[in-house]
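Thread amino acids onto this structure.
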């Protein structure tokens, strides 16, 4: 399969199924500490347990934390005025590129659920592979061998790339990448079979797009968890920053340094008010829904389109433009595709 070649600009415009022609990320190092805005939680260490957190023992000394997300109602998506404001701030984008965020609509999440405190890590995915012998789509060569990666300049399809070899250094604490939607679903199926202590009737799965945005916003109505000013985001996320600007002067970036090459270890940045980390940036995240237009009107527990070609991808990454890290930004891609900027997190949801 040939990459579509739309590159960073394509993701910046919210185009669907853009095979990323990545640019090389660059080194940078600075203090990411900043005073936590009122109403949010400070960052916890990877070994600390938050209130209302469920910790799942995956075996082999590996655990996974999930945070209880309360039921509630929020406004999903963007209004026409919201989008005009984004374009006024960043003329590099256009209203039609963000039109898939409309209409803004009220969504009710009727039941509380647990959501991964962090993106699924390399170590957690490794434990799954060790327990099952699973081979990812990149390793099996499903449709094409390898994955799309960053490598010494513009990105490429690398036949030997996989979650084991994303073409940049990762530890077991980094988010797993180069995994397809199908690979993510396979880990979810394993969790359902492995966690014998999960509540009766509950199921592990990928988050719906509505659950994802609800979890990301955590009660906010602004572009980001920290507000509408991108320049105040230092310490909140791993994104395209001033380090990249030094080598790529035409890039539009956040006006701060996050201190990381490529991905950062999960939990390196502040948690939002729900206790979730890295909902903005680090890696994009697969959701369970088929990608499609929003429906008009109020909705309860929506699950997206009933069918489609692409699956929803949310959250922005270390690679993307500032406007692509907003809570409302929507992308989608073919479920077999895999990239060094896409990972996932899981939810544990109650039954009907």
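Threaded sequence (352 positions):
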């Amino acid at each position: 399969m040939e990459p579509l070649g739309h590159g960073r600009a394509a993701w910046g415009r919210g185009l669907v199924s853009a095979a990323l022609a990545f640019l090389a990320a660059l080194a940078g190092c600075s203090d990411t500490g900043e005073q936590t805005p009122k109403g949010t939680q400070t960052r916890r260490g990877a070994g600390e347990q938050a209130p209302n957190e469920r910790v799942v023992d995956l075996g082999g000394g590996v655990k996974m934390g999930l945070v209880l997300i309360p039921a509630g109602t929020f406004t999903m998506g963007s209004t026409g005025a919201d989008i005009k404001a984004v374009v006024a701030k960043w003329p590099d984008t256009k209203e039609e590129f963000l039109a898939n965020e409309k209409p803004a609509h009220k969504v009710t999440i009727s039941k509380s659920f647990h959501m991964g405190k962090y993106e699924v890590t390399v170590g957690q995915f490794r434990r799954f592979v060790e327990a099952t012998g699973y081979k990812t789509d990149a390793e099996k060569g499903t449709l094409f061998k390898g994955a799309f990666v960053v490598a010494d300049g513009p990105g490429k399809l690398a036949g030997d790339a996989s979650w084991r070899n994303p073409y940049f250094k990762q530890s077991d604490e980094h988010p797993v990448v180069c995994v397809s939607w199908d690979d993510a679903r396979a880990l979810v199926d394993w969790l359902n079979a492995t966690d014998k202590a999960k509540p009766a009737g509950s199921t592990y799965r990928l988050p719906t797009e509505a659950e994802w945005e609800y979890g990301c916003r955590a009660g906010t109505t602004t572009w980001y968890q920290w507000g509408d000013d991108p320049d105040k985001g230092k310490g909140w996320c791993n994104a395209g920053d001033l380090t990249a600007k030094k080598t790529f002067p035409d890039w539009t970036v956040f006006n701060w340094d996050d201190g990381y090459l490529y991905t950062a270890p999960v939990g390196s940045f502040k948690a939002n008010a729900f206790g979730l980390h890295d909902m903005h940036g680090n890696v994009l995240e697969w959701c369970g829904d088929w990608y499609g237009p929003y429906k008009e009107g109020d909705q309860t527990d929506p699950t997206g389109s009933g069918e489609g070609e692409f699956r929803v991808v949310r959250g922005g990454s270390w690679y993307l433009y500032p406007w692509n890290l907003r809570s409302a930004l929507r992308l989608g891609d073919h479920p077999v595709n895999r990239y060094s900027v896409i990972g996932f997190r899981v939810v544990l949801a109650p039954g009907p």
